[in-house]
Specification:
With about 650 residues, the protein is mainly α. The chain contains 36 helices and no strands.
Length: about 650
């Protein structure tokens, strides 16, 4: 409670006039939306033909019954000799797609994934490609399974497979994050040696050089034929990766390899091709190769689907992402519930979600005999509220309850967001009271969305009222909410109010603002000549272990500041006794750029002895005497 009172006190600093209005202001909301009035739901939206309550379809799997039995056994039981015996009895050769599918299911259980991988390679006769090995390495790169990780890398080398750059950088990042310096060094050494020793790497580079040497035509094809390439899956994959920024050339090489060299494409190369073609300028070719792959009896593996789908979503190619999802749901290797959730979330995150796509995803998932999860209902609900379809959103909430999912902070936050987006701010505020009445206490994210909605509508004073109300509920503010409020103040050019709010919350509530919040506010303060306040923020940044932000100060002081300002600023930058020589160098350079040579010289005389004798600073002042002041060694960053 004391902390809440302290924060409220800081708000009074930020906007003292607001509080006199607060005591006399009538309740914000004028209308309450009740979500408990409807007892049934039939969506009126034309695409939503499913009722989301009853599932009558049985899930279908297209791959063989024996292969399905292997998948079920591996996923359902702990690894043991008994399980291996049962798998051996089935006597079924597993395909690339099935192995990828099982490994994806086991990616959170590295020991089991490793045991399965060994069994399928040694007992089942499966020969893994580079892409399968890469997937195994990503699964095994953790402290508990590092021994198996390095065994797998050695096997990979023996099989003449390679680690592609994407996988290398991914697992290198994991090792660095875990501070496993020895393994980082070993991986770097292995990767460098692999590139040096891999003759395939040289062949791939030569092929790529020919392909990129000119427009595809008979000349290029002739040069490729004369190279007498010994084509393999791994070589083709390597070439595709090298050509990933030239998707149309990938397609031409893909067809040339299949038609001219006697090489027959398989699941591995089809999937590698599809990964490269997921772009706006090659989406037609993507679907063409996809159709050819299906006609040839091959399937997209689940790892490729996940990567392709996420790339489509990242590029906002949502129509294609939904089409691919529907096709994959009809395949043996179906997307998971998490994949479906992510797709719905991506669709709903756009400014104006396409409801037809939303309901297509939900309908397709349900038609496979699945029940919609809470996250899927949230995705549908988020889309409806985002486009302002609150009547249908209300019905969805009722259906969620009937399905056993009580509305929570996520559900209500989406509705608050939609109401704020529609500028129905009073209703959005009233909704939080309704939440509490229904036993759902608003959390910091819900409050932040409400306050951000008011700020976006330029209703900063009302946003502060909401903030005050939040503090009275003992819900503590965080850096996200502070950033929202500061930006709200700055949008109204209330720079001093933003500064006082931040300082008050840091002092009274011990908040640690985001570094970006500090930087934005520093720039705005300097824009209104509040140098002392801006330097106060730098002092706070240092206390909270953020690096200082000198660039805007140097520009400001060199144009408008005094020698004392420059001296004070350099003191603020100091970590122990003095800032680094490069910090001084950039201050002097900036003064020279503004034509303030005499002030720069006066400042130099005030500097400590080691700064005056610094070789680069001496060279700078020497060049100034000759009429040309430049940083001696070229452009440098300011080191403090």
């Amino acid at each position: 409670m004391n902390r809440s009172k302290a924060i409220l006190a800081s708000l009074r600093l930020a906007n003292s006039l607001l509080w006199t209005r607060l005591s006399s202001t009538r309740p914000i909301c004028t209308r309450v939306t009740h979500f408990s009035l409807l007892s049934s739901f039939t969506p009126s939206y034309h695409s939503c033909t499913s009722h989301f309550l009853i599932n009558t379809h049985n899930q279908r799997l297209c791959f063989s019954t024996q292969a399905k039995s292997i998948v079920d056994l591996v996923i359902a039981y702990d690894w043991s000799d008994d399980l291996e015996n049962k798998l051996d009895e089935l006597n079924t050769k597993l395909t690339h797609e099935t192995v990828i599918y099982i490994l994806k299911k086991l990616d959170k259980d590295p020991p089991k994934a490793y045991n399965f991988f060994n069994w399928v390679c040694e007992e089942n006769g499966f020969r893994p490609s580079s892409s399968v090995y890469s997937m195994m390495l990503r699964i095994l790169v953790n402290k508990e399974s590092l021994k198996h990780f390095w065994i797998t890398i050695r096997k990979m080398k023996e099989e003449k497979c390679y680690i592609d750059e994407e996988t290398y950088l991914s697992i290198l990042g994991v090792l660095k994050k875990a501070k496993m310096a020895t393994d980082v060094s070993a991986l770097n050494h292995f990767y460098d040696r692999m590139i040096e020793e891999n003759a395939m790497d040289g062949v791939a580079r030569n092929v790529v050089k020919v392909i990129l040497g000119g427009e595809w035509g008979k000349k290029v094809e002739k040069e490729l034929e004369e190279m007498k390439i010994e084509v393999s899956d791994n070589l083709v994959i390597r070439i595709f990766k090298e050509l990933r920024n030239y998707p149309l050339k990938v397609v031409r090489f893909f067809h040339w390899v299949g038609e001219c060299s006697g090489y027959e494409h398989n699941t591995i190369t089809y999937n590698a091709t599809l990964r490269v073609l997921t772009r706006h300028d090659s989406i037609e070719e993507f679907w063409s190769v996809f159709d050819v792959m299906k006609k040839a009896g091959h399937e997209m593996d689940i790892d490729t689907y996940i990567k392709v789908s996420r790339q489509l979503q990242k590029c906002r190619m949502m129509e294609d992402a939904v089409k691919l999802f529907e096709l994959m749901m009809d395949c043996p290797y179906k997307p998971s519930v998490q994949d479906c959730n992510l797709l719905l979330k991506s669709i709903s995150s756009s400014d104006s979600p396409n409801l037809d796509l939303v309901f297509r995803v939900a309908k397709k998932y349900e038609s496979m005999g699945n029940f919609l999860s809470k996250a899927m209902y949230d995705g549908i609900h988020r889309s409806l509220t985002s486009v302002g379809n609150f009547d249908e959103a209300e019905k969805i909430m009722k259906v969620m309850k009937n399905a056993g999912y009580e509305p929570d902070n996520i559900t209500y936050s989406q509705l608050v967001f939609g109401l704020c987006k529609a500028r129905r701010l009073d209703e959005a505020s009233e909704l939080l009271d309704e939440m509490e009445a229904n036993g759902c206490v608003p959390d910091i994210k819900t409050w932040t969305i409400l306050i951000q909605g008011h700020c976006a509508a330029n209703e900063v004073d009302k946003a502060l009222m909401c903030f005050a109300k939040m503090m009275e509920t003992n819900c503590d503010a965080d850096a996200d909410l502070l950033d929202v409020l500061v930006k709200g103040f700055l949008c109204q050019n209330r720079v001093t109010g933003a500064y006082e709010l931040l300082m008050g919350l840091v002092e009274k509530a011990r908040l640690r603002p985001w570094q970006a919040t500090y930087k934005t506010l520093i720039e705005k303060l300097l824009g209104v000549s509040k140098l002392e306040e801006a330097m106060g923020l730098v002092r706070l940044m240092k206390k909270q272990n953020y690096p200082p932000y000198p660039e805007p100060f140097i520009q400001y002081i060199s144009k408008f500041g005094s020698l004392q300002d420059a001296s004070d600023f350099l003191k603020v930058l100091s970590v122990k006794e003095y800032p680094s020589s490069s910090a001084y160098l950039h201050v002097f350079q900036s003064f020279f750029n503004e034509g303030r040579h005499s002030e720069a010289k006066d400042l130099l005389y005030k500097c400590p002895h080691h700064i005056r004798n610094d070789s680069k600073i001496s060279a700078l002042f020497g060049s100034a005497k000759r009429g040309k002041a430049t940083v001696p060694s070229g452009k440098e960053s300011t080191q403090v």
